[in-house]
Every structure is written in structure tokens, then in C-alpha cells.
Amino acid sequence: MKPVDEFFGCKVFNDTVMKQMLPEDVYQSLKRTVELGEKLSLKTADVIAEKMKEWAISLGATHFTHWFQPMTGITAEKHDSFIQPSKDGGIIMAFSGKNLIKGESDASSFPSGGLRATFEARGYTAWDPTSYAFVKDGTLYIPTCFCSFDGSSLDKKTPLLRSIEAIDKQAKRILKAFGLGDVKKVTVNVGCEQEYFLIDKKIAELRPDITLCGRTLLGYKPPKGQEMDDHYYGAINYRIAEYMRALDHSLWEHGVYAKTKHNEVAPAQHELAPVFTDANTATDQNQLTMDYMKSIAIRHDMVCLLHEKPFSAVNGSGKHNNWSLSTDTGVNLLDPGKNPRDNALFLLFLVAVISAVDEYQDILRASVASASNDHRLGSNEAPPAIISIFLGEELTHILDCFETGETFVQDVKQKMQFGIHTAPSFTRDSTDRNRTSPFAFTGNKFEFRMVGSSASVAGPNIVLNTAVAEILSRFADKLADADDFNTAVNTLIREGYANHKRIIFNGNNYSAEWEEEAKKRGLLNLKTAVDAIPSYVAPKNVETFIKHGVFNNAELLSRCDILLENYYTTVNIECLTLKNMLNNYVIPACFKFEKQLAELIAAKTQIDVDREEELKYLSFVTDGAKKLIASVKKMDELLVKVSPLPVYEKTKAYRDLILPAMDDARKTSDELEAVFPKDQWPFPSYTDILYSVK
Length: 694
Ligand code: ADP
Ligand code: MG
Fold this sequence. Notes:
- The chain has about 700 residues and is of the alpha+beta class.
- About 50% of the residues lie in helices and about 15% in strands.
- The strands form 3 sheets. Strands 9, 10, 11, 12, 13, 14, 15, 16 and 17 form a 9-stranded mixed sheet that branches.
- Strand 3 (about 85) and strand 4 (about 90-95) form a beta hairpin.
């Protein structure tokens, strides 16, 4: 491999390339669009498009695509070649400003939750110049927003960009009140730690559940799982190391700051974390990372599983969303600095996040809700479904003192040691290794740990940005009306904390006592996605989203519908797959084994020896097969019963009827697997799968 600094970002149309290739006035105009949201003229776009094409062709590109993020949770792309017939029967390579800025595509096959009437199938993609274009596999990728004919968003990027604008606006109002009007931009920073499983492709192909659902629907617990803690940070084996090198290489070429990689807790589980960047880029790059994780795995004869719970009885995968706010003057607004007690600006932003997380628990929980994440949350490897914040003893103590009046920032503006924290004396709380908290303050950022490994991080960040923007806007209103600024700031910190401190919990989130305690505190415990998703249309949330221009009413209704639909469709596919595995594999295998046992018993009858154990064995298998046949019948009946129900009832029925029926069937099947001859069980075992990459 060449030295990394020689090829890092070589496939990205980044600032350096733009500065080199674009005429100065065009470059400046684009910068103003990116930084200040100024409109870009078509003439300027034409020049950018021409240069972008030239650059992409030099890297072997023949096509371009408007890359977007529909509500499927993955990315979508339709490739158009640059070729255009010329008069002499040849071709020219063409790409105009119009091609760059706007695309039109048939949106009818993407989920719209009723936003787009069927007769109006058109969808539009619009260039997002705040995320760099790049070349991948011979195509120029242009990050775009995706919306319907009337401008309603049909994707995850549009509302994310709106929420980034909302929080920038409100945070700047606060900074201005603090006399920091020189800050032109407040950026949301996000770093996503991505967990994943790698298994051998040949083994994966023998499992319809892995192929179709990305998780196992059957499988007896392996004798050795993660009990020995020998996989976590363990030596990385050769095949995995080769894979990780290839992955890093592709990510670096595409400007992703892939930084850490290691083995995770479960066998076959790994993690990759990049250096954080702005939320929009981080979201795009995480999508690209997930794409590469999957495609590079195939090249290495492996399958990458991004599902939140591919195997029962071993840890599932999450995606920690590290989140902070920084100014263009280089200050992290969540950095406590040398002396947090005196850092009123920090405390105010801290209390804003605490208030936002408490007040918007429901929708934050909804932002990580999916059928797949339901299997992980609360199952002793991931935070429970109750949202709480870990602050650490020191900060909690400081805020407690604030509340009781023991400490008081006397002169906010003078004492604020803003941006000059060269030698922080604030020791990061030693308990910041509290791994059980769903929303932990980890030194100078918050870490939202409930996000599922397969999810786009757009959803959680949209909600977090908007909720914090709302609290900041209230704070800014109060500060604008205040007679005495210092008193007003102190009051906001004290009252904000007093009203919302119930959300702070520094203890063990996995314990049963916490569930009790949380209930006493009145915190929500929305156990499943079905309980959480309707929060998207709760009046207080609708009002906030509308106020900050992040979603309109119709968009929220549609999102709620899409998420519910997604839930029951997922479970439906799983149920059909399970039936197929039982009908076509497990039940016939039982019959075959029964026959063998019966023949053995018959032979023994003739020679008159004790057959007691064999008979027990036989009846166990016979009963098991009978139970499985009954389970399949039950699933068939339930599927017919739930099918005509309206969306919400149907989603609930899939949770309350179909999933338990699937669990029942699994239990029977797993008990059979435990006693079956290895060569007669139709699927690779958990041991075969989890230890398949050697
Ligand atoms: P850990 O495993 O201890 O949580 P990692 O180093 O694996 O830590 O991941 C931490 C993630 O947080 C990285 O992606 C890192 O870039 C990101 N991060 C660090 N500082 C910030 C910050 N100020 N804002 C947002 N993300 C941050
Ligand atoms: Mg982490």
C-alpha cells in the first residue's frame, strides 16, 4: 500500500481539488453557497459541472449518479453515462450545470407514506453542495436530497440539513447574547462507531434466514459464545485483517477518516470508528462505510451482517452516535474547559441538552426504533428502552450545587474562560466508562448509544438537533428579555436542571432496579418500536418540528406510516422465511430421522434388547415434528388474520401475535437441533457460523 497521505481523499472532489480546478470567482461563489447558503447561478453551476466531469473522467468515470437516501434506510442510485451522440456519429462526454443541480426520477417505488399520489410519480433529486461528490467504481457520485413534486421530503438528508440549520440559528442567538456575535457558524459534529459481524460466505449461503433477513431465525445456543471475553480486543486473524485493510483503503480513498478498528465482544463481531466530522458528511460517510463493509466482504468471500441482532444469545450490534457542537472560531461548546463551574456558556448548553433529552424522550426513542433494533435494546448488551443521561459524578455535583445555590457564576461574561482552555484541570470523570447508559456525556461530547447498527444516523441526529434547537430558542428568548444578563443565565441553568434532572442517571442501566426507579421518576419506557413510532405525530413534537422548519405535518404523518409499514413488512418477511425453513428443511429432516430411528428400533425388536432410550428419542423427534407442523399452521392462520388490519393495528398484531408464534416455533426447532445428528440437521449451527472465518 502507498503511504496513506499520498492517496487519502484521491477519489473526492474536495476543497483542494476545487481550489485547484475552479476559476477563483467560481470557487468563491461555491464557498458562499456552502457556508452561507447563497444561491448558485446556473452559469456558475455549468463551470463546476464541466470541471467535475473532467476530474471524474480522469479517474476513469463514465457515468454520474444522483446519490440519495430514501426512507428505505439505504442509499439509492441510478447511473447515467456522460455520453451524448455527436453530429458525426461519434460521442461527446457531456455534463451540464443542470445535470449537476437537479435530477428527475421515478419515485413511485420508494416509500412515501402517502405523500406522493400514485398519479404523480415524479421525484426530484437536488444537489447538496455541502457534501463532496466522489468517484466510485467508474461513476461520479453526487450527494443529493430527494423530494416529491411539491417539495415534500422523501428522504433522510433533507430534514437533516434543515435540523442542522435550525440548531445553527438558535445556538448563534445564544452566542450573540454572550457577546460572541463574531461566530458565523455553529456546526453539529458526529462520529459514528460502527459494529458489524463477518461470517464466511459459503456458510451464510446455506442459511435462508441470513440471506433473506440478515439474522438467524433458528439456531441452538453455541457451547462457547462470548463468556470468556476472549474476542474483545483480541488479536485480529489474517482474513479479517486483510478485509480491514481493504476497507480502510477504500474509505481513505473516499475521504473517510477511518481511525480505529478492533474485535468486539461477540465472536465474529468487529467495530470501525472514523474521526468525527460535520453531521451531514458523517451521515453520508456512514452510508458509504456500510456499503463498503458489505461489498468488500463479498470480495473476500465473507458476508458482513449489519443487523442489530443476527444471533440470539450473543451480543448484537449498535452504532454509537457521538455528538457535539462547535463554532467556526474553533470552540467545542460541550467542552467543560478548565473549570466547568465558571464556564456558564458550557453549563447553559449542557442544561439545554439535558432539557431536550428529557422533554423529547419519546421522539428520541422513536428515532432509533425499528423491528431489528427491538431485538437488541434492553437485552443486556445494549441500553434499555428507557432514555436517561449519564453525566458523571463531577458534573452532576456542580449542577446539584447550582440548584441549591451553593455555587453561582457571579459574573458570567467575565468569568467565562471561553476558548482558552489550554490546560484543563477538569478531570474527565473516571466513571465515564459507564457502558450501560443510552446517552452518556463522555468528556466533551454526548454519545447516543441506542442507535441500531443498520440504521442511518440521519434520524437520531434530526431529532437531537431539533430538540436542542427548541430549548436553545427558549433560552435565547429569555436572555433577550432579561434585565440582568447574569441572573438570567444563572436562572436558566438552575431551573433547567431542576426541572429535568430526573433524566440523569449515573448507575447501571441494565439493572432491574433502574426500571423501577425510572418508573417512579416518570420516565418513559417505550419497550418496542410499535410503542415509540407514534411519537412522530404527538402534538408537542409536531409543533416543534414545524416551528423549526424541519418537517411539516404531512411529512411527519408519512414518516410515521413508513416506519410502521417497515416494521410489519420486516416481520412478515421473517415469518415467511421461517415457515419456509421449517416446511422445506426442518420438518422433512425430522421425518427422515424418525424413519431411521424407527428402523433401528424395529431391528432391535427382532433381537429382543432394551429399546427404552431409543423409543424416548423417537417420541421426542415425533412430538417435535408435530409441534412444528402445528406452529406453521398457526403462523398461516395468523398471517391471514392480520393481513386486512389497518396500519397501526397490523403493526401491533405483528408484534403481539406473529413474533411470539415465531418464537414458539424457534424454541421447538432449537430443542430438536440440540439432539439431532450433526450431518442431518439442515443448517450450519451457531458454532459453524460464528467461528466460520478462520
Ligand atoms: P469509545 O469506544 O471510547 O466510545 P472511540 O474512539 O471508539 O471511543 O469513538 C469515539 C468517537 O467519537 C469517534 O468517532 C470520535 O471521532 C468521536 N468524537 C470524538 N470527539 C468528538 C466530538 N467532539 N464530537 C463528536 N464526536 C467526537
Ligand atoms: Mg463509544
